[in-house]
Design goal:
about 260 residues, alpha/beta, six-stranded mixed sheet, five-stranded parallel sheet, 8 helices, 11 strands
Length: about 260
């Protein structure tokens, strides 16, 4: 199975997101409900297939609420690095054509972010209230979306990589998930540790691919070596990302 919706139906209480700081995570059932509510909100704001939604968030479960809401709404999903200034973030919002931006209120650059006409900006608290007011069922015109991540380390302004949107059903086979399943045999019994910022391409792609395959995703708010080792032991992590392009399976010893 290659979509969290299918795992929500099969095992709604299985953890989808676990936070290592002890803050609330998400089960697959909760992730499905919140993603549907997010898609309903997206449509209520007049956002359609091919439009962009963005998030400027620290590592938190709401990253996945925004992502999976956009993925089933036919939207491009654009993450913004949390260390950017308000002006730098505004450039990405404007350049990507984002019509919705979900933000962590404690981000330093937020106070300097201009408010653009046609862009709805929601803090995490406002996002939660807006979702609570929406129905939990799927939208009528679902279609698959895709992430659009902006480059870093380049000269001049960051560039957005805008690939054609996928066609077909939102639960259709996904290339990265299929590759990881074939190479690492990832499934619902696995637990993946994500130690990196979820605004980077690889952490976002790997965690969401694991959700497609039903694994539990353990998220560190911030990487610390000793905390990562403790999380591996505590949550019996079977997979992790060692460097941006290296996905590895760990040896899990019997209890």
């Amino acid at each position: 199975m290659t979509h969290p919706r299918l795992h929500a139906a099969a095992a709604p209480d299985r953890p989808a997101v676990i936070m290592t700081d002890g803050s609330p995570g998400l089960t697959y059932g909760q992730l499905e409900s919140q993603a549907n509510r997010g898609a309903q909100l997206i449509r209520s704001l007049g956002i359609r297939r091919g439009d962009t939604v963005a998030y400027w968030l620290h590592n938190c479960p709401q990253v996945f609420e925004v992502y999976w809401a956009g993925q089933r709404s036919g939207c491009y999903i654009t993450p913004i690095a949390t260390a950017l200034t308000g002006g730098e973030a505004d450039y990405i919002v404007e350049n990507s054509g984002a019509k919705l931006l979900v933000v962590s209120p404690e981000i330093e650059g937020l106070a300097e972010l201009p408010r653009r006409p046609g862009v709805t900006v929601l803090t995490l608290e406002e996002w939660a209230r807006a979702l609570a007011a929406q129905p939990a069922g799927p939208i009528a015109d679902e279609s698959p979306g895709f992430h659009m991540v902006y480059s870093s380390g380049t000269t001049g302004r960051p560039k957005g990589v805008r690939l054609p949107l996928p066609e077909g059903e939102v639960t259709a086979l996904h290339q990265l998930a299929a590759m990881l399943e074939g190479r690492y045999a990832i499934g619902p019994a696995d637990t993946y540790l994500s130690p990196a910022p979820l605004y980077h391409t690889a952490p976002l792609a790997y965690t969401t691919a694991c959700h497609r395959l039903g694994a539990s995703v353990v998220v560190m708010p911030k990487f610390e070596p000793e905390a990562a080792l403790a999380a591996i032991e505590r949550y019996r992590v079977s997979l992790t990302q060692m460097v941006p392009t290296m996905f590895v399976r760990l040896l899990t010893l019997p209890e």
